[in-house]
Amino acid sequence: PLPYLAYGEVETADGQPAVGALVRAWLVDSKGKESEPLSTVVDGYGFWSLNLLVQNCEELELKLQAIGLQGSEAELTQPTCGVRPVPTLVLPEEGPSHTYLPLILR
Question: Which of 5, 7, 10, 22 has the most beta carbons within 10 angstroms of its beta carbon?
Answer without folding.
Answer: 10
